[in-house]
Automatic annotation (TrEMBL):
<keyword id="KW-0067">ATP-binding</keyword>
<feature type="domain" description="Sigma-54 factor interaction">
    <location>
        <begin position="162"/>
        <end position="375"/>
    </location>
</feature>
<feature type="transmembrane region" description="Helical">
    <location>
        <begin position="536"/>
        <end position="555"/>
    </location>
</feature>
<dbReference type="Pfam" id="PF00027">
    <property type="entry name" value="cNMP_binding"/>
</dbReference>
<feature type="transmembrane region" description="Helical">
    <location>
        <begin position="461"/>
        <end position="485"/>
    </location>
</feature>
<keyword id="KW-0411">Iron-sulfur</keyword>
<feature type="transmembrane region" description="Helical">
    <location>
        <begin position="819"/>
        <end position="837"/>
    </location>
</feature>
<keyword id="KW-0472">Membrane</keyword>
<keyword id="KW-0812">Transmembrane</keyword>
<dbReference type="InterPro" id="IPR000595">
    <property type="entry name" value="cNMP-bd_dom"/>
</dbReference>
<dbReference type="InterPro" id="IPR025944">
    <property type="entry name" value="Sigma_54_int_dom_CS"/>
</dbReference>
<feature type="domain" description="4Fe-4S ferredoxin-type">
    <location>
        <begin position="619"/>
        <end position="649"/>
    </location>
</feature>
<protein>
    <submittedName>
        <fullName>Sigma 54-interacting transcriptional regulator</fullName>
    </submittedName>
</protein>
<keyword id="KW-1133">Transmembrane helix</keyword>
<keyword id="KW-1003">Cell membrane</keyword>
<dbReference type="Pfam" id="PF12801">
    <property type="entry name" value="Fer4_5"/>
</dbReference>
<keyword id="KW-0547">Nucleotide-binding</keyword>
Length: 839
């Protein structure tokens, strides 16, 4: 092997070739050969160099602080530490060997001697530094202009990875890795709310070019000429040119102006573009770009998709139900960390509710739903299903907001009069007076105005009101007024902390408890003649009041009303038929509300008043059933955004749209159906010729139980017949179809009480005088003719039959033949009611 000529090698292979030959000869004379092992540092920022090195053979790497190692520009011939020695300062970076390497080495003291002997070395270095400084200044100016141009469009980071372990999530992660492995263009499309722009960012930041910039531009704001994207010929560059080897996200490419479709398609297909020229000028020469193109849209676009190299379809959330649990946990953790909150647990019931929803807004809707639930829960340890309310599933049709149509109604319902002044200024006193008169006054209905009011006024009026105002009575119910008084005493005077609701147990058993309680009330009413025994009617009122007071002393808000009250259970069932509803504008609640004071209470905010929150723990935006609203209007008073609505609607529309059937409600419905026949035991005894002595307790009890049970058995038999008839059809389950009997049950109950309402309620004045031992002769009496009562009873039953058949058809959505057994059962029940009530 020929011996190396150091001078010639320095001239040909190193940056020292700018020095004259005498200087190079002097340097060559002091060169020392060194061989260093791998991983040996030869330059370190905090250490002054011992000399300078010239690499002859081997591999080196450099590394700056917080930057990955690089081997760029460290080929044989590179000089190391010379600038640091000449400037008398430590090196700017660490340089070390990767493999065993050969060097020429000049000690630091010999370098100083050469510099003193040959000033040319310093002069050459000064010129080199000046040239490098000019180049750096020019590069900085360009980079500044580039940053200014790109800054409005920068995507600084990916928000999150793909959460979940389903096969869809795994495949999506694999597609993202493949899309980022090369420079080919990618078409990303999928439904709204899937965070497709985040997927584009994941592709970029997972690629080898992650250090390059990534920008996103909304195609809907591009000019028709596309100058901001392609630049102008001979003028200002466009985003493509400034971007270099970065990544361009064309967001909402379906909104691209038609004039740019062809140019963008060419860019995606060939990675070339033409700068924009003035009208009449020749087209500019095409330019190529190394940028990676990512196009995003919400649907597949045949005009663009074929021109992109890869297609990535993002699966909607409704097909990734297995990922919902992981995503909810992720969003809970994310939000709680950001707000420094303790992390709540998601109940299984809440998870099931989320998994049963299709999420038209996809991931974005789920995240908003979780964040709303955490705020609404007010730092509770569990997130229960009641606080998860999703976007409205059905279109809000055929609704008239009465609060907008009648501003005076809104003003009244937001005033202190409703319901507080009515409750605490009148009802609380009136109820105590009624109970006292029931105990102390005469014991028959014709001589006790309180007994007359309860059976001849209250029952017909409340039954008549259900189709119009739902559970309105519950807002002024005296049972819960005394419950609230007990609650205030328990909290303020006794310093007792009220317990949260045992929701799971109450949802499971509460409905059956009130069903059993109502059964006992029916039997007590019939066997002991409560309708004509004042003190027993008083005990009935006191027992229900005691239940409300005991529950209020233990649990917060109206636990008794929500789950256990028998009257409330009946009211909630019949309220489903109401032509009015209280709801909220979900868009307003989602976009503007962050406090949820209508649900959990809070101080005054804007026009929203200070309240303690919904007494039934219902949010108006999540309401789908009138049974969960007592129309107390707390939410209307608390809402600062005017989101709450009191709507006029088609009667009972929930029953065939959003209604969720419950077995205990159907049991209560069948009990109320039997109650109509129970109230007419003497007529049944006479019509059937049974000859049972109703003055005897056990025969009376047996007939009462038969009256309650046989109508329910008749309904169940019709349900079995429907299943047998529809083996080849897709019929609704019995527990859902059974709600079709609801109008008949309401109509039959009202027909029964019309006799009392129209025959005895008008005697209230003479009965009132008789209550206090006075003569009521000559006082006006308003009663209907028996023929009028019979006509109205018959009309009510006919209306109940027709509406039941119509409602059954709406719920079942089957042919008339398929549901014929239930229609025949309805007619049979109505015929029985006609015989014992009307005839």
């Amino acid at each position: 092997m020929a011996e190396i000529n150091p001078v010639a090698w320095l001239q040909e292979r190193t940056a020292l070739n700018r020095l004259s030959e005498p200087v190079l000869t002097a340097i060559a004379q002091v060169l020392q050969e060194q061989i260093l092992p791998a991983n040996q540092a030869i330059a370190e920022p905090e250490k002054f160099p011992t000399g300078f090195y010239i690499l002859r053979e081997g591999e080196l790497q450099t590394s700056l602080k917080n930057a990955p190692p690089s081997s760029d520009e460290l080929s044989p011939g590179c000089t190391i530490n010379l600038r640091a020695l000449l400037l008398d300062q430590p090196p700017e970076q660490t340089i070390s060997t990767v493999t065993e390497s050969k060097f020429w080495f000049v000690p630091a003291d010999r370098v100083r001697e050469l510099v003193r002997q040959y000033p040319e070395i310093t002069q050459t270095l000064t010129r080199q530094l000046a040239q490098e400084l000019a180049e750096v200044s020019s590069a900085l100016t360009y980079e500044q202009q580039r940053q200014d141009a790109l800054r409005p469009y920068f995507v600084t980071k990916a928000k999150r990875g793909i959460v979940g372990r389903s096969r869809y999530a795994q495949r999506l992660r694999q597609q993202i890795r493949e899309a980022g492995s090369d420079r080919r263009s990618v078409y990303i499309f999928g439904e709204p709310g899937l965070e497709k722009d985040n997927i584009a960012a994941l592709i970029h930041y997972g690629s080898p070019h992650r250090q390059q910039p990534i920008v996103k531009i909304n195609c809907g704001i591009l000019q028709k000429g596309g100058a901001e994207l392609f630049g102008r010929a001979g003028g200002k560059p466009g985003l493509i040119e400034w971007l270099g080897e970065g990544t361009l996200i064309l967001n909402n490419i379906d909104e691209l102006p038609e004039e740019l479709v062809e140019a963008v398609a060419t860019l995606c297909k060939t990675a070339t573009y033409r700068p924009v020229t003035r009208e009449g000028d020749d087209p500019a020469a095409p330019k190529s770009t190394p940028a990676k193109i990512l196009a995003i849209s919400e649907k597949h676009l045949p005009a663009i998709a074929p021109h992109l190299d890869q297609t990535l379809k993002v699966p909607p959330l409704r097909v990734r139900k297995a990922d919902i649990s992981a995503q909810v946990e992720y969003y809970i953790s994310l939000y709680c960390r950001a707000k420094a909150l303790s992390k709540p647990q998601l109940t299984p019931e809440a998870l099931r509710r989320l998994q049963s929803y299709d999420f038209p807004g996809n991931i974005r809707e789920l995240q908003n739903l979780v964040e709303r639930a955490i705020v609404q829960s007010d730092c509770a340890r569990e997130l229960t299903e009641e606080i998860f309310w999703a976007a409205q599933g059905k279109k809000k049709r055929f609704r008239l907001n009465l609060l907008n149509a009648y501003p005076q109604l809104r003003h009244f319902l937001r005033s202190p009069w409703w319901p507080d002044r009515i409750n605490y200024g009148f009802t609380v006193v009136a109820f105590a007076l009624v109970v006292a008169i029931l105990f102390l006054g005469p014991q028959t209905r014709d001589r006790n105005f309180a007994l007359n009011f309860f059976w001849a006024w209250w029952w017909p009026l409340i039954l008549f009101a259900f189709p119009f105002v739902g559970r309105l009575w519950c807002a002024v119910c005296p049972f819960m007024i005394y419950g609230e008084i007990t609650q205030k005493i328990s909290e303020k005077l006794l310093k007792h902390n009220l317990k949260p609701w045992p929701r799971q147990q109450a949802e499971k058993w509460g409905g059956w408890f009130l069903f059993g309680l109502f059964t006992l009330i029916f039997l007590w009413e019939e066997l002991w003649d409560l309708q004509n025994t004042a003190y027993l009617s008083a005990w009935l009122l006191l027992l229900i009041t005691a239940g409300a007071m005991i529950c209020s002393a233990i649990f917060e808000r109206r636990f008794w009303c929500r789950y256990l009250c028998p009257i409330g259970g009946m009211n909630g069932l019949f309220a489903k038929l109401s032509m009015t509803e209280l709801r909220a504008q979900q868009g307003t609640c989602s976009a503007e509300c962050s406090t949820y004071q209508c649900y959990k209470g809070g101080p005054q905010k804007g026009e929203g008043m200070e309240t303690n929150g919904c007494p039934l723990y219902s949010h108006p935006a999540q309401l789908e059933d009138n049974r969960d609203c007592v129309l107390c209007m707390t939410c209307l008073k608390a809402c600062p955004h005017r989101s709450v609505e009191f709507n006029l609607r088609p009667p009972g529309i929930d029953l065939w749209t959003t209604h969720q059937p419950r077995s205990y409600e159907v049991a209560l419905l069948l009990l109320l159906l039997g109650g109509i026949f129970l109230h007419r035991l003497p007529e049944i005894n006479t019509v059937l010729g049974l000859g049972i002595d109703l003055s005897q307790f056990w025969p009376h009890l047996g007939l009462s139980l038969a009256a309650l049970g046989i109508p329910a058995a008749w309904v169940l038999l019709a349900g079995v017949a429907i299943v047998g008839l529809n083996r080849t059809f897709k019929s609704k389950p019995f527990v859902q179809l059974a709600y079709g009997y609801l109008p008949l049950v309401l109509g039959g109950s009202l027909a029964h009480y019309l006799r009392l309402g129209l025959g005895e309620a008008g005697r209230i004045l003479p009965v009132t005088f008789a209550t206090f031992g006075l003569s009521g002769e000559g006082l006006p009496v308003w009663i209907a003719h028996p023929a009028v009562i019979t006509f109205l009873q018959g009309t009510t039953l006919i209306a109940g039959v027709g509406l039941s058949i119509l409602l059954t058809q709406k719920i079942g959505r089957e042919s008339l033949r398929s549901l014929l057994p239930q229609h025949l059962a309805t007619l049979g029940l109505a015929l029985g009611m006609w015989v014992i009530i009307v005839r």
